[in-house]
Amino acid sequence: MSPQLNADLIRTLSMTLLITTVAAVEVRNLRLAAGAYCVQALLIVGLLTSFAAANPPLYWWAGTAFLTKAVLTPAFLFGYIRRTHATELKPLIGFAPSVIVAAVLMVVFYRLTHTHASLLAATTLAGEEVYRTNLAVGTTVFVMGLYAVLTRRDAMKTVIGLCLLENGVHLSLVSLVPGLPETALFGVATEVVITVFLLLYVIAGVYQQFGTTDTLKMSELRG
Amino acid sequence: MNPLMGETVSLLPALAFLLPVLAGVLALGGIWYGRRYCQAVALAGALVPLVLGVIMGGQAVGGLVVTAWGNELRVDALSALMVGVIGAIGLVAVFYSLRYVEMPEFQQRVGVVKVERRVPIFYALLLWFLGTMVWGCVTNNIIMLWVAVEATTLTSGLLVAFFWDRRALEAGYKYLMLLTIGITFALVGCVLTYASAAATGALDGRQALLISEVRRVAGLMPPGPALLAAALLLVGFGTKAGIAPFHLWLPDAHAEAPTPVSVLLSGVMIKMALYALARTVGIFLPTWPALAVFAVALGVFTMVVGIVLALGQDDLKRLFAFSSVSQIGYVLAGVGLGTYLGTYGGLFHLLNHAIFKALLFMCAGALIYATGRRRISELGGLARQMPITAICFLVGALAISGFPPFNGFWSKLTVYLALVNAGLWWAAIIAAATSVLTMVALVRPAYQVFWAAPGSGAAVQKVREVPALLWLPMAVLAAACLVLGLWPQLAYPLLDRAAQVLAVLGG
User: Fold this and answer.
1) I need a surface site. Which of A140, A147, B32, B141 has the fewest CB within 10 A?
2) From the candidates B167, B173, B183, B283, which should be mutated to test the interface with A, based on the most A CB atoms within 10 A?
C-alpha cells in the first residue's frame, strides 16, 4: 500500500458509506432516503480525494463525482419528491425481513469480494489494502442497489437503487482501473446523471397519468 | 487486423454520427419554422449515415480501415456494414414518418393542440437516436462504446414514451429502467476488460481502451477477470439486444413506440447492441472457444422463447416484437459460433432481418392508419382494399420464415449449414424447427388479416389503401427482400469482409 494514503480515514469513510447505503434502501421517507444518498455521494467524493493523495488524477474524478452525484442527482431527486410524494409505497418485503436480507447480502458480498478480490481484479494493486476494502465496499453497494431495484415497488425507490448501482461501479473503478482517462470517466458520469434525470421525468409523467408510482399498478401492457 | 488491410485517416467516421446529431438540433427549429422544415432536415440528417456508410463500405471492400481521432474511431467492414444498415433503415423510417405524423392515431395520442410543437421534438429525438447508434458502431473505445449504447437507450426511451399516455409511459419507464440496469452490468464488463488488458503490460493505459488493440492481447489476460468480464458483457449488451431471458422490456417498447420508432428499435437498435456484444465478447472467443457453444445455446434458446411467445399474440406489433426476439437468436447463433460461415450467416441475417422486420412494422403501421386497429382478431379480408400492404406483408412474413426465393432463406440456410459444419446438429435442427413455427406465427396472421373472412370481432368499414408516402418505403423494402433473395451475392463483398472481422475460430 502506498504510504501516502490515510488507510484509517479511508476505512472509516467506507464503513460510513455502507451505513448510508442501508439508509437509502430501507428508509421509507423519501426525503431522508434521498438525503442518505446525498451523504453517500459526499463520502464518495471524500474517498476519491483520499485516494487522490497517491494518484492525483483522482482529484478530477472527485470533482466530477461532486458535481454529478452530490449536486445534480440529489437536486433531481428532491425536485421530483417535491412534485410528487414524500413517502415510499410499501415495499414487496417488510422492514424487518428486509433489513435482515440486506445485512446478509452485505456481509456475504463484502466477505466474498474482500477474500477473493483476484476474481474481480486483474492487477495486484486491487488485491492490496486499502484498495481491496474499497473494491469490497463498491461491490456491496452495487449488490444493495440491485436488491433495492428488485424488491421496491415505488418507482422513485428503484431510481435510488439504480443510483446505488452506479455508485458501486464508480467506487470500484478506483481499485480496478485507477488509470482510466478522465474523458472516459466524464462520459460515464454524464450519462448516469442524464439517465437519472430522464427516468425521473418519465416517472413524473407516470404519476400524472396513473396517480401513483406503484410499479405493480402499471399493468396496461400485460399479455 | 488482417495483414492485407491498410488504414486511412479520415473524418468520415466522425461526420457519420455528428451530422445526424447536429441535424437533430436543427430539427428543433421546426417549432418556429414548421413541420415541413423539420422533416426536410430529418431526411437530410438520416441520409448522411447511409451515404457515408456506403462510402466507407466501399473503402472496406477495397481493404481499407478508416480511422479518426487517433484510432478512437475506427470503421472496418463490420462497422461500415452497421453504419450502412442503420443509415438505410433510418432513412426509410424517416420517409415513412412524413405521412405517419399526420395520421389520426398519432395526432390523437399526441394531442391535436400540441402536435405542431411536438413533431420537431420527435424528429430531433429520431435523429439523435440514429446518431448515437452510428456512434456506437464507429467508436473503437470500449468505454465510449458503453456510453454510446446507453445514449441510444436515453434517446429512444423518450421516443418509446413519446405519446405520453398510460401505455406509452409504462412502456417508456420499463424500457429505461430495465435497460439501464442491464447495461450497468455491461459497464462493469467493459471496465474489467480494460483493466485486464492494461494488466497484461503489453498496452499502455490509452491503448487498453481501444478494442482493436485489446483483441491482440486477449490471450495474456488473467482468466478470472476476463471470463467475468465476458459474462457481464453478455448480460449487459444481451439485455439491450433482447436476448432471452433478458428480453422482458422488448415487447412493450417495440409495440408501444410510434411505428417509425418500432422500425428502428426492431430493425436496427437490437442489432447495434448485438454488434457491441460481438465486438466485446468476441475479444475473448479465440482464448476461450467454449464461449461459442454457450453463445449458440443462448441463441437457440432465444429463438425458441421468442417464437413460442409470438404464437400467442393477437396484437400485431407485439407479435412482431416477440418475433424480433426469436430472430435475434439466429443472428446470435451465427455470429456467436465464431466461424467464417457462422459469422457470414449471422451478419447476413442481421441485414435481412433489418429489412423484413422494418417492412412488417410498417405494414402494421399501415393497417393502423387505414383501420385504426392492430389486433388480428379485429381485422380480416383486407386484401382487396389494401392490395399493396397485403403483398408487402406477405413478402415480409415469407422472408422472415426463411421461405425461398426471399432473402431470409439464404441467411437462415447459411446459419444452419454453419451449425452443422461445427457439429452442432441439435442447434441446426432446433433452428430449422423454429423457422417452421415462424411461418405459422407470421404467415397465418397475414392470411387472417388480408384473405380470411372478417371474424366476429371485426368491425372495419370503408377501408382504403394507405397513401403512397406510406406504401412506397414498404414496397422498396419488399423489393429488397426479393432482390437479395434472387441475388444474394450482391451483399457478398461487404459481408465477406465483415465476416472476416468476427471469424476468429476455424471451421
Assistant:
1) B32
2) B173
How far from the centroid of its chain's Cα atoms is residue A65's Cα? 12
Whether residue A193 lies within 8 A of chain B, CB to CB, comes out as no
pLDDT in tens, B244-294: 898 988 989 988 899 999 999 999 999 999 999 999 999 999 888 899 999
B338 and B455 share one domain: yes
A contact residues 84-113, partner B, Cβ 8 Å cutoff: none
What's the CA gap between B104 and B127, in Å, rounded?
A: 23
Say if A125 is an interface residue toward chain B (CB within 8 Å). no
CA distance B38 to B127: 11
Q: Are B480 and B407 in contact (CB under 8 A)?
A: yes
d(CA A57, CA A180): 9
A166 touches chain B (CB under 8 A): yes
H/E segment holding residue B6: strand B6-9
Residues in chain B, total? 507
A122/B417 Cα distance (integer angstroms)? 39
Residues in chain A, total: 223
Q: How many domains does chain B have?
A: 3
User: Which of B174, B188, B374 is the best substitution to test chain A (most A C-beta atoms within 10 A)?
Assistant: B188
User: Is any Cβ of chain B less than 8 angstroms from the Cβ of A180?
Assistant: yes
Are B172 and B283 members of one domain?
Answer: yes
H or E element at residue B119? helix B115-138
| Whether B365 contacts B328, CB under 8 Å | no
Q: Is residue B297 part of a domain?
A: no
B352 and B276 together in one domain: no
Distance in angstroms (rounded) separating the CA atoms of residues B31 and B141: 36
Query: What three-state secondary structure class fits B380?
Result: coil
Q: Which candidate, B44, B27, B240, B50, places its Cα nearest to that of B134?
A: B50
pTM of the model: 0.93
Residue ranges, chain B, pLDDT below 70:
1-4, 112-113, 455-461, 507
Instruction: Name the grid cell of B393.
Output: 406483408
A121 touches chain B (CB under 8 A): yes
The secondary structure of chain B in percent helix, strand, coil, rounded to multiples of 5, reads 75, 5, 20
Chain B CB contacts of A166 below 8 Å: 184
Determine, yes or no, domain membership for B353.
yes
The predicted complex's ipTM stands at: 0.91
Contact B184 A166 (CB under 8 A): yes
Following CA atoms B289, B294, B300, B306 in sequence, which dihedral angle do they give, to the nearest 10 degrees? -130
Q: Could you tell me if residue B132 is inside a domain?
A: yes
Cβ-Cβ pairs closer than 8 A, A with B, add up to 129
Q: Determine the structural domain holding residue B362 and report its residue range.
A: 310-507
| Segment A113-133 mean pLDDT | 81
A173 close contact with B: CB closer than 8 A: yes
Looking at the structure, tell me whether residues B362 and B487 fall in a common domain. Answer: yes
Residue B120 placed within a domain: yes
Which residues are registered as beta bridge partners of B9? Answer: B67
**Contact criterion met (CB < 8 Å) for A119 and B164:** no
**B272 and B238 share one domain:** yes
Q: Å from A18 to nearest chain B CA?
A: 20
3-state secondary structure B143-173: HHHHHHHHHHHHHHHHHHCCCCCHHHHHHHH
pLDDT in tens, B348-400: 999 999 999 999 999 999 999 999 888 998 898 899 999 999 999 999 999 99
A209–B169 C-beta distance less than 8 A: yes
Provide, as residue numbers in chain A, all residues whose Cβ is less than 8 Å from the Cβ of B203. Answer: none
